[in-house]
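Box 3.1 A note on notation
Throughout this textbook, protein chains are presented in two layers. The first layer is the amino acid sequence; the second is a token string describing backbone geometry. Keep the layers aligned when reading.
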Amino acid sequence: MKLIIRYAALLALAGLCGCQAVKQARQAQSPTDRLPGETTVTAAQAGLELGRPCALTNLEQIARSYHPSLLQAQQAVESARLQCRMTHSGRLPQVTASGAYNRSTQNAYGRRPNSTEMRGSWSGSVGLDLLLYDFGKLDAQERQALEALVAAEEQLRVTELEVTFNVRASFFDFHRSDELYRVALESVNQYAQHLEEARTMVQVGTRRQYDVTKAEVDWGNARMDVITYSNALIVTRAQLNRALGLADAPDYLIGAGAMAPHPESVEDLMAAARGNAPSLAVLRARARAASVYVDQTIAELYPDLSLGADAGLSGRGFPLAWNFAWALRVAQNVFDGHRKTARIEDAVTQLRTARSRLADEEQSLYLALVTAVTVREGALKRLEVSELIERQAVENLDIVNEQYRVGVSSSIERTDAQVTVTQAKAAVVRARYDYQSAVARIAQLIGDPVASEEPAQNN
């Protein structure tokens, strides 16, 4: 009876251990239990207040808190961590328990007459298995699980960098579209002023009707540019909202923000990336896991040594009789059709593939850095030249406008001067934000997630 009580207590303990996990699992199934990223947040939940400017750093924080891809990466880390626990459980004793009540006839060969009478019997057992030595198979499995956890953590960093870069790129695209839209509006106002001046001059007889028609065409073309940039503004704002993890279009203000510069050379940036870029760290962890898998497949050539023990109760009535047995087991597959040796060779191919992927990613990263640095330097030079052209174009437009009023310049010269000013201002805007986007890309490539600053900069 004492053994039965202990058996029942063991079952109760096992049940209690699983209760908390079951409770958490049921809670996760509830429609009200949602983590950030499981559902699309509203602007209010994200902290976006109407009429309040939201700087770049604030937008980055919102995306890192609510974007669904980050929750997916976080859950992948948690899954890898649990896999480590499950793998480690192979080192612990494995305890099983069973109980049964059977009823059967007791007829035997040679005995007459046979009877249909059934008798009951009770039985229960507790078994224990403990792995003693396996020539390193479990060690290799644990190291693989650990490297998978490292890879998942680094992949989370990759996702954080991608989410942050998408916010920054969308932020700068929005500001680029906004400033180009303002340039287009300014151009429309200039052409509207030209039209009024042309009409006045035609009325007083100092200009021909052609000047009015030319001014009307220029004004119409400028309005078409406003429509184009207005549409681009709507699209880039929607892209920014998507990068934040939103599915609506809240009317919040987008404030200032700029990237902290990365003036380093390609070689300096590549050195930083080799030590910090999570994309390389992920592949390094997978290469190490592939190497450990080779160890595991080699260890599978050798037997497993384990200890087993069973304690049981049985009988037709109480008190039940008990028995105990233990065994030292050695298990070895003598021949499996060369499957194990083929698995070793396959593990080697996986190792070489993993190393090749690391080399390929390193080369791709270097190319991406060369491209980003080239764009950065080109944008700086274009910005310098564009600002000079803008100043000269504005001065030239003032001169041409004055000459037009006194009848020295034609309407075509005036239009050309205005177009030059508009193009120069647009070039300044594009160069400025091309630089910001290139620096944001560099920060992503070298694994620098906190390289933005709130004060707006010109370069």
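DSSP finds ten helices and eight strands in the chain. Strands lie at 53-54, 94-105, 118-133, 253-254, 258-259, 304-315, 321-331, 452-453.
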